[in-house]
TrEMBL record:
<keyword id="KW-0804">Transcription</keyword>
<dbReference type="InterPro" id="IPR046335">
    <property type="entry name" value="LacI/GalR-like_sensor"/>
</dbReference>
<dbReference type="InterPro" id="IPR028082">
    <property type="entry name" value="Peripla_BP_I"/>
</dbReference>
<dbReference type="GO" id="GO:0000976">
    <property type="term" value="F:transcription cis-regulatory region binding"/>
</dbReference>
<feature type="domain" description="Transcriptional regulator LacI/GalR-like sensor">
    <location>
        <begin position="76"/>
        <end position="240"/>
    </location>
</feature>
<dbReference type="Pfam" id="PF13377">
    <property type="entry name" value="Peripla_BP_3"/>
</dbReference>
<keyword id="KW-0678">Repressor</keyword>
<keyword id="KW-0238">DNA-binding</keyword>
<protein>
    <submittedName>
        <fullName>HTH-type transcriptional repressor CytR</fullName>
    </submittedName>
</protein>
<dbReference type="GO" id="GO:0003700">
    <property type="term" value="F:DNA-binding transcription factor activity"/>
</dbReference>
<keyword id="KW-0805">Transcription regulation</keyword>
Length: 246
């Protein structure tokens, strides 16, 4: 199977570019594309097409994605099991996938019979930038009473987690002795950060392999039913997290 690369935006994609590339190929993988017009074009071209980390709301195209909601729930549950109760979540909600992770975090709080208060337990960001995360968390810590200070930070990505570590260090707080930091991503910076990050890894390689298998099945059996495959994450414990003793 020969691959071609076609850069598209998540939304408001270049439809003409997509059509041109699709006319030159036999199948397509659409990675993180939320543009419903592109989904419609892909379905109408009658060529095998699989979405990766995206969904077709009209259920015409198959997809494979991380189980974002379960990843969020598992991550928060892990921190609860480590004895943490004051957990601050740092989330960029730019895509619905991040909203699903946040819903999973809320589910974990509910399962613990604890109230999730967005004003106290959530900082929403406009991007995945480490600089923005550091600035927002620094501001939060300046106004947070010591009694309500979190014992753990749960970040929706590695760069956000890295920014959180920077803000904590600037505030004179140690990671993980004073505050633990955990990421839901686990690839870009987790292993090589100055303080290696405990994380739930998104199965990126497995997503690609599963999507290619879907394409092959669609080519061999054109009538294959469409559906969505959700893959679990994997916990990797590193140095940024510690159990909390109350």
């Amino acid at each position: 199977m020969r691959l071609r690369y076609c850069p598209l935006e998540e939304v408001e994609s270049d439809a003409a570019l997509f059509i041109d590339k699709m006319q030159q190929t036999e199948a397509a993988l659409l990675i993180g594309i939320d543009d419903e017009h592109i989904h419609q074009l892909a379905a109408e071209m009658n060529k095998p097409c699989v979405l990766i980390n995206a969904r077709d709301r009209r259920m015409r195209l198959p997809s494979v994605s991380p189980h974002h909601q379960l990843i969020g729930e598992f991550s928060a549950r892990y921190l609860f099991e480590q004895g943490h109760r004051q957990i601050l979540s740092l989330h960029c909600l730019r895509r619905y996938t991040m909203e699903q992770r946040l819903q999973g975090v809320r589910d974990a709080w509910h399962a613990m019979n604890l109230r999730f208060d967005s004003r106290q337990h959530l900082l929403t960001l406009n991007s995945f930038s480490s600089n923005e995360a550091a600035e927002r968390l620094s501001e939060y810590l300046r106004h947070c009473p010591d009694a309500l200070r979190p014992t753990a930070i749960l970040a929706s990505g590695d760069y956000i987690a890295a920014g959180a570590v920077t803000a904590l260090e600037q505030a004179g707080l140690r990671v993980p002795q004073d505050i633990s930091v955990m990421s839901m991503d686990g690839f870009n910076l987790a292993a090589i950060h100055d303080i290696p990050l405990t994380s739930v890894q998104v199965p990126r390689d497995e997503l690609g392999a599963a999507a290619v298998r879907m394409l092959q099945e669609m080519r061999l059996n054109p009538g294959t039913p469409t559906g969505s495959l959700l893959l679990n994450g994997r916990l990797v414990v590193r140095e940024s997290g510690a159990a909390h003793s109350r």
